[in-house]
Amino acid sequence: MKRNQHKNFMEKKIKKTQKDTKSGKYSSEEKTIILTILAALAIMTTVLVYMAFFTPVQKEPFTALYLLDSEKQLENLPETVVLGENSTVTVWVGVENHNDTTIEYSVQVRLDEENSAEESDSAELVGCFNKTLANGEKEEFEVTINIEEPGTNTVTFELLFFNEAENCWNQTGSQIDLTIEAAEAT
Fold first, then answer.
1. By CB count within 10 A, which of 78, 100, 128, 154 is most buried?
2. By three-state DSSP, how is residue 81 classified?
3. Distance between the two ends of the chain, CA-based, in angstroms?
4. Is 37 left (phi over 0), alpha (psi -120 to 50) or beta?
5. Hey, what CATH topology would domain 62-183 get?
6. What is the pLDDT of residues 6-21, one digit of tens each?
């Protein structure tokens, strides 16, 4: 090869290399793949942000049943009584409706004197409180129970709801048992 030819060849080679470096270090195929990945990431991020901030949280419907002491506190629920002196127990029973619909509730209060000859299934009904509550409403009932037998007494608070479709009262599965020891006065 002659010197001039070699010089021309080298100049062309340098020009071609400069063109390749000006267009970047990625081929057009690689650029397409990178842009596709970036677009997919942007779409996924947008969907996740939308779901996190704009999709309403689905709340599980529920009914709450709770007991409070005579001062409407949770701290001092009665555990013992002395017959003939302070054998009356007063508590507050609360019901809350969070079922997205209006429901008619019934709180049945039963006293089971375990020392009696009766079976525990035959606990005496000592109170019944009915109230219709709209979604988000709550009601608190004051309940006074007189305990007359010494020993272990269980007061059961059971929550029922009226099933309009079947036209009857059904259990909600909510029940609270309060055990009270009754002693003879000394």
1. 78
2. strand
3. 129
4. alpha
5. Immunoglobulin-like (2.60.40)
6. 566 666 656 655 555 5
- DSSP conformational letter for 57: P
Average model confidence (pLDDT) across the chain: 85
Domain ranges of the chain: 3-54, 62-183
| φ/ψ (deg, to 5) at 131 | -160, 135
DSSP string for 1-38: --HHHHHHHHHHHHHHHHHHHHT-SS-HHHHHHHHHHH
Residue 71: strand, helix, or coil: coil
Task: Tell me how far apart the alpha carbons of residues 97 and 172 are, in angstroms, rounded to a whole number.
Answer: 12
Q: How far is residue 164's CA from residue 162's CA, in Å, rounded to a whole number?
A: 6
Its pTM surpasses 0.90: no
DSSP assignment of 115-176: TSSS-GGGPEEEEEEEEEE-TT-EEEEEEEEE--SSEEEEEEEEEEEEETTTTEEEEEEEEE
